């Protein structure tokens, strides 16, 4: 079968859609930024020596608590909480089991106690199968 130039050019617009199912499953994880803030209560809850262990982009754990509080943890150790003025949307998403991430932006032991640990919260996108893109 011979392909004509006209037939080939007519086929070109469909190329991106031929392998769309496979590429969506293998696409890198997409993470969207929700909020960035200093951790509340870090000076009360966390071991000051822990600051040295916190590298930028380190993954932390978020856990919904009573009264709309959101605890921030590293390996089961409490680092502090999402500030009350910023926790409502994060708490609601955690209650809905949204795939939230929390990463260290900056950990500075020389900063004032309220500004020692800065984090950002994001949400990861799911693919068409309801799976995380990086799983």
Topology:
Blueprint (H helix, E strand, L loop, with lengths): L4 H7 L3 H4 L1 H7 L4 E8 L3 H4 L13 E6 L5 E5 L2 E5 L6 H8 L4 E8 L9 E8 L11
Antiparallel strand pairs: 1-6, 2-3, 2-5, 3-4, 5-6
Q: What's the total count of β strands?
A: 6
Q: Count of helices? A: 5
- How large is the share of residues in beta strands? 25-35%
Q: Mean pLDDT, nearest integer?
A: 79
Classification by helices and strands: alpha+beta
Low-confidence stretches: 18-24
How far do the termini sit from each other? 41 Å
The level of helicity is 10-25%
Q: Tell me, what's the shape?
A: elongated
Q: Write down the Rg.
A: 22 Å
Q: Major beta sheet, specifics?
A: 6 strands, antiparallel
Placed side by side, the strands forming the largest sheet appear as 1-6-5-2-3-4
Order of helices and strands: HHHEHEEEHEE
Notes on the structure:
By secondary structure, this protein is of the alpha+beta class. The protein is built from five helices and six strands. It has a six-stranded antiparallel β-sheet with strand order 1-6-5-2-3-4. The longest helix is centred in the C-terminal third of the chain and has 8 residues, at 88-95. The two termini are 41 Å apart. Mean pLDDT is 79; it is low at 18-24.
Q: Outline of this structure?
A:
With 135 residues, this protein is α+β, with helices and mostly antiparallel strands. Helix content is 22%, strand content 30%.
